[in-house]
Write a structure and sequence with these properties.
Blueprint: H1 8-11, H2 18-26, H3 29-37, H4 40-51, H5 61-68, H6 74-85, E1 91-95, H7 102-105, E2 109-117, E3 122-130, H8 135-158, E4 170-178, E5 192-195, E6 208-214, H9 215-225, H10 230-239, H11 243-252, H12 255-266, H13 270-363
Parallel strand pairs: 3-4, 4-6
Antiparallel strand pairs: 1-2, 2-3, 5-6
Helix pairs in contact: 9-10
Length: 365
């Protein structure tokens, strides 16, 4: 760990003091109104970011795309993806986010970049503030969408020469700030790779690949183990805003100093960075609402399931009671029949006794 008296400003002299930034904001009515519209904790987060009291939250969409924008510098995102995928890749182009699922499936997705790699593979890089309750199912749909988009593009380009062997793999890479509970069962693992394999060992070129990165679990490991390799370095850059770890990072991996310089240069433009920060707050508020709605719907679904089970249980009991009632009704009917038969027999016997008594009286005369 670096010496405690070191500050980010020692490495980035362009970082400004808190009072200077506040003076600039107060002097501009538009900026001041925007600043005052934020909650106090958000105001402090913004000032901490700009003054180096805390690092920049790179998993915010605006900052992620500002520093890792492949259209401005494809080498950076290529480096990140190579480290995550585990093989050398080069980002060739950015593809438009025109997938059909974005309209109704984008809640809680903070960043969503779709890129084509040098070998024509497609990678979709996503950042989710809160891991979805059904991560696997959603990721499968996203991957299927990527594969279909590539199929259409390659088929249209190759026309009659098209072959399915022209289709390259697709990668769905998901960073999760708050990962679902299932990931916390693997406390020492913070990169999970999924691919299709057969149960027999036969190999087919299946094209869908998934990589899940629970950033919260990585940070727990970072605090215990420090930065150990290139993957740790990238995840520290993306997920950690603690100055002491950032200083460790740029001292052990000077490559990242240039990336931080871009961020702090951006912070010199107060109006622009405030606008970016404000948009992030809006996204977080919207996503929090979406998450709460999802959670409430899940609670409603669970309650409905319990009610349905209870209804089924009551229906079974009603059926059992109906069967008992029918059984009792049959028993009552049988008793009534026996009673009627008994009454008839008793009446016949009484009549016979009366007749015999009358004959006996005649004989006694």
């Amino acid at each position: 760990m670096n010496e405690r008296n070191k500050k980010l400003k020692d490495f980035f002299p362009i970082i400004r003091e808190r009072e200077i930034i506040l003076t600039e904001i107060r002097a501009n009515n538009k900026l001041n109104d925007l600043f005052e519209s934020w909650r106090a904790d958000c105001q402090n987060d913004f000032l901490d970011m700009c003054t180096g009291a805390r690092g920049v939250k790179m998993l915010y969409d605006s900052y992620f795309k500002e520093v890792l924008n492949p259209e401005a510098d494809s080498e950076r995102l290529s480096n990140l993806l190579s480290t995550i995928i585990g093989q050398k890749v080069t980002v060739k182009t950015v593809l438009p986010n025109d997938s059909t699922r974005l309209g109704d499936e984008a809640s809680l997705v903070i960043t969503d970049i779709v890129v084509e790699l040098e070998d024509s593979s497609i990678a979709n890089v996503e950042v989710q503030k809160i891991g979805y309750a059904f991560t696997g199912e959603r990721a499968s749909c996203y991957s299927a969408d990527l594969l279909l988009r590539q199929y259409k593009r390659v088929r249209d380009a190759r026309k009659e020469k098209f072959s399915y062997k022209d289709i390259s793999p697709v990668y769905t890479i998901v960073f999760m700030e708050k990962s679902p509970a299932v990931f916390h069962e693997y406390k020492s693992s913070y990169i999970h790779t999924f691919e299709t394999k057969s149960n027999t060992g036969i190999h087919l070129n299946m094209l869908q690949n998934f990589i899940f990165i629970p950033v919260d679990i990585f940070l727990e490991n970072l605090h215990n183990n420090g930065i150990r390799d290139d993957l740790d370095a990238w995840l520290t850059f993306l997920g950690c805003d603690e100055p002491e770890y950032i200083i460790d990072l740029i001292e052990e991996y000077p490559y990242f100093k240039r990336l931080y310089e871009d961020l702090y240069t951006m912070c010199l433009n107060t109006e622009r960075v405030m606008d970016m920060f404000s948009k992030e707050l809006q996204i977080l508020d919207r996503n929090t609402v979406s998450y709460m709605i999802d959670e409430m719907q899940a609670e409603i679904d669970r309650a409905n399931a319990i009610i349905a089970d209870k209804d089924a249980e009551l229906a079974d009991k009603d059926t059992a009671l109906a069967d008992k009632d029918a059984e009792l009704a049959d028993r009552d009917s049988t008793i009534a029949e026996l009673k009627a038969q008994n009454d008839k027999t008793m009446a016949e016997m009484s009549a016979q006794i009366a007749m015999l008594t009358a004959k006996l009286s005649e004989l006694n005369k």
